[in-house]
Amino acid sequence: MSNQLDNEDLAQAINRPLEEEAKEAASAEFHELLDFSHGDLDGDSGSLLAKIEDDPTLSFRTSDQSSYNDNRWLYATRSGEKVIVTFTSRLAGGNELYKQLIYHLIPEFHPYGKVRSYRSTRTYSYACDYLDWYLLSPNGLDATPESIRTITVPMINRALDMARDEGIYRHYSFLYFILAFWISLSAQKLISRELRLDIPLNKVVTKARQKSVQEKVAAETQGWKPYTEGELSSMVEYALFWTEEAMPTLMEIRDFIVESLSVHKVGFLVRSKPDLEIEEMLGKKVKGVTVCGYETRPTKAKITSSSGRELEYDYIAYTWKNNYRVALDNVMQGILVLFSLITGLRSSELAELDFDDITQSGDGEYTVNVVRFKTSNDPNYFGEPDAIPLPDFLGEIITQFKQLREVEVHMRTRKVFYCAKGGKVASIMARSIQKSMKRIGEVTGIDGVHPHRFRKTIAEMLINRSERNIDVIRMLFGHRSYKMTLRYIARNPYIISSVAEAIETHYAQDFINLVSAVQGGGYSGSAAERIAAKSAEKPLLFKGKLLRMTIYNYIAYLIEAGEPVFIKRASVGVYCVSNDEYSADQLPPCLEGKCLSDGPIQPDTSNCKLDCKNAVVLSDAKGELEKNISFYRGLLDGGPGMLSRLSRREIERQIKINEVHLSNLGNTKCFGKASVVAGDVVQ
């Protein structure tokens, strides 16, 4: 009984952070809806009405590649990813209305200054369809001015209720967003008069409606979304520029400041003529980017001579400290990107790190000592200490960054992720992390940058082993072999937990089927035997809420063994569960004789072979197995003289394979089942 309670406590300890993250992700998504849909005007929002007035042909640009009158607006992100926003409404006046709305979701023209990513523009542009589906068409309206004038608050509330009750992912929250956005743009006179929706915002954005939408978002949100390949590329490129390419130059600038400028406590220098040494050293560039810089201000000084004459001199005042702080923050933010990817720490844990927490052992390995916090009702709970390995290159970068920060005026705190430009040390360092994440989003053009998304991204990369993913993982974790990298990652409980969560998200029902089959013995296949053997060590973990614990243990076991993770449904009742690394000389049956592309080799589940050691066959496959046997026997009976000896042998082998699996499914023993290896039955 005690052992069962221990296991349940352990399961709750793993479940709780995942549930907290899902709530936090849902809250962030809901507040993004609010931030994007309405607020105070943030300067010039693009002056759409002025542009329309100046150019009635509507040929002014909405991007470098597109004009306003185009029905496809094309954008390129910093990473080179193409983003296309299309206008294909068949409603009268639809495209005219939708263009005026979506124009204000372009980062450069968002009136509230919150949208930073063209990907967000595209995502939220889909909300226009919901105006048609739930508000306009059901009321016999189109998007012409005459129809818009007839829209009432009850119509809007009925549309929102219909979208809520329909239960389709994001329809309710996105309809709520686009309506609030349309009303806000109308009230602030940012769109054409005839397209304005004359409805008070407080009639739609009510407390009850906000609560309802927030609950719906929470129900739909499974957790933080991983970054796209383009988003990750942009952030890693930004991080590596400041931590690797700019770092040597910044170290030179740091030495110059210490040797030549640190004695000037007031923060500025006065020279009677340009100081070429200061300008050369502080103005150094890397790839055309000034990594530190300085400011100059011409000044005049009046001096009265001994003879009483008033003399005027021209001076140049040099300031550099604020520029140096900005450079420090760029390096810190680059480290924050890499650190979040590699360690998977939460905001609260990142915020508490100081330079003394990063240590180097006698054999040269770097470790970060962290206090891991979990939800607890115990007022005396102060977290649990843990040690997570760091790749050598990241440990060396942090050591250099510490030296940059040790310039006298900038070491106000030993917290690693302190914002130098802010001046004062934040009383709540987690807010400093949030501000840094926001700035990373601003410079890379990405919305919703958050530490949890980094951990989720690494988990997804470990599951989806594209060639690019493996290259990025090798780079991040020190250019080790993939197998060694997995063993290295296995020492990090944060990432293992995220991989387990991602596996559960992608393959939840599939894994439940596998686990249930293993528990009840209703399975066939060597891969299922491997799961059963490993799981038999803790049989109680197959029950109810302990299922997530089982997934966690299984994934941790695979990663610790340096084995890749591949779980995919092949056909009804048949799954591929592979943790092998394949080469051209060692292929699974599904790939034999196929032309292989460059990059990591993964099983082809569309060509699954039941004699493969990675095939897991469950009871749902019984009907198909019986059909296969009938089909093959029909071939043998139908043409005894038509088949070659080789063909007959292969058909008999297929019958045997299907019979073995069918027999195993009827055998409820969890061990000792017959297995099929290249057509041979092994007891």
TrEMBL record:
<dbReference type="GO" id="GO:0006310">
    <property type="term" value="P:DNA recombination"/>
</dbReference>
<dbReference type="GO" id="GO:0003677">
    <property type="term" value="F:DNA binding"/>
</dbReference>
<dbReference type="Pfam" id="PF00589">
    <property type="entry name" value="Phage_integrase"/>
</dbReference>
<dbReference type="InterPro" id="IPR050090">
    <property type="entry name" value="Tyrosine_recombinase_XerCD"/>
</dbReference>
<dbReference type="InterPro" id="IPR013762">
    <property type="entry name" value="Integrase-like_cat_sf"/>
</dbReference>
<keyword id="KW-0229">DNA integration</keyword>
<dbReference type="InterPro" id="IPR002104">
    <property type="entry name" value="Integrase_catalytic"/>
</dbReference>
<keyword id="KW-0233">DNA recombination</keyword>
<dbReference type="GO" id="GO:0015074">
    <property type="term" value="P:DNA integration"/>
</dbReference>
<dbReference type="InterPro" id="IPR011010">
    <property type="entry name" value="DNA_brk_join_enz"/>
</dbReference>
<protein>
    <submittedName>
        <fullName>Integrase</fullName>
    </submittedName>
</protein>
<feature type="domain" description="Tyr recombinase">
    <location>
        <begin position="306"/>
        <end position="508"/>
    </location>
</feature>
